[in-house]
Amino acid sequence: MRIKYQKPNKIVLYFLLGIVVPCILLSYFAYRGVRNESAFLERKIINEHQKTANLITNQIDNFITTERNIFKNYVQQLGMERNSIDTDSLISSLSKQTLIHSIFSIDSRSEFTFHCPKLLYLPDKENQDFINSKNSLISRLINIAHHLEYVKKNYKKALEVCQSVLSQNYNANIKSILLSTIARLQKKNAQPDKAILSYHNLKKKYGNLNGPGGISFGLAAHFELGSLYITVKDTLKAVEIYLDAYHNIVESTWNLQKSQFQFFLKSVSDSLNNLITVIKKDQNIINYKSVFDSLRSQLKLKSQMTEYLLLFHENGAEILAQKIGKDNLNKINKPSQLFLEILDNKYLINLISIEEPHDIKSDVIWGEYGIQTISEINT
């Protein structure tokens, strides 16, 4: 019997055509099917994301427009009712507007005036005046008391001089100086209980007035009281008074320059940390520490806001004038919107023109932290 012989190259060809090629084709079509399905899913996801993004964008635009109109109507109504824009009332309304954080005005000469809400501090270049007494008699008596205190070191006699005129009918500025001097002299005369009463009286009656160096009598009284309570070994009371001072600093109760703010904040923080460490087992201290921690969190947020607004306060006018044109700042006749960027901080500005009844123009910067809010009223 004779066996037919086939050449090896034909066997390989049949193998390729019968097995390899079909496998490749099947693999290719399977890959294309999976790829097409994946592409379809990707397109579907992209479309859904685009719809969501458009929805969010529209909601934000509608929200900003609504808030801008509310603010515009408020300003217009305020001007109609009072015949002028009361910036204090306007600033007080900012707490009700979650997006507005500050206002500024542009006059007919295209000059900016900023009306910031209470900030943690002001730039150091903005000096705070201390009004000295113009009463020649009281000035002479205070100078005599200072001479007795600082030169003669006769604290008792200096105290008698100040106390002799305290009951007289002088204005609040003079009485605050006298009471502050009396409290200081009582402390130097080793009369801590009397000094504590005097400083509490000073804090209560004249805490909003500024003393030498632009430092509030209220702030100075808090620090002196903290020191006096430590002297009489009432550490819990010292913690309370320092905590109250910290709270007032966070709430911007006192107008401070940046260097003053940093100094007093560090001083009160160090005092609180030291006292809390010493008496950390007391239950009241645990509560005070919780309050202290909460205030520090608030302070961090307000510090960011203060730096943000001061940056615009110092640079925004020039940059805005460059972007719009200084001659065009007071000629804005329709709402417009623009972005400013200052050292990586972004400001979204809405310019609103109100022609009636008092030719008011309003400028609003909207946002939160990354993009903040500043409003402008052209009076």
Name the helix and strand elements from N-terminus to C-terminus, one letter apiece: HHEEHHHHHHHHEEEEE
Integer average pLDDT: 76
Termini separation? 119 Å
Q: Count the strands? A: 7
Q: Please mark out the parts with pLDDT under 50 across 5 or more consecutive residues, or reply none.
A: 356-379
Structural class: alpha/beta
**Which band does the percent of strand residues land in?**
5-15%
Q: What's the number of helices?
A: 10
| Largest sheet entry | 7 strands, mixed
Nearest-angstrom radius of gyration? 35 Å
Overall domain count: 2
Fraction of residues in helix: 55-70%
Mass-distribution shape? elongated
Describe the structure.
- The structure is a single chain.
- This protein has 379 residues and is of the alpha/beta class.
- The chain has two domains: 1-120 and 306-379, no CATH class; 128-209 and 223-231, Serine Threonine Protein Phosphatase 5, Tetratricopeptide repeat (Alpha Horseshoe).
- It has helices at residues 8-82, 87-93, 136-151, 155-166, 172-188, 192-206, 217-231, 235-250, 258-278, 283-324; strands at 103-106, 112-115, 336-342, 345-354, 360-366, 371-372, 375-378.
- Strands 1, 2, 3, 4, 5, 6 and 7 form a seven-stranded mixed sheet that branches.
- The radius of gyration is 35 Å and the shape is elongated.
- Residues 356-379 have low confidence and may be disordered.
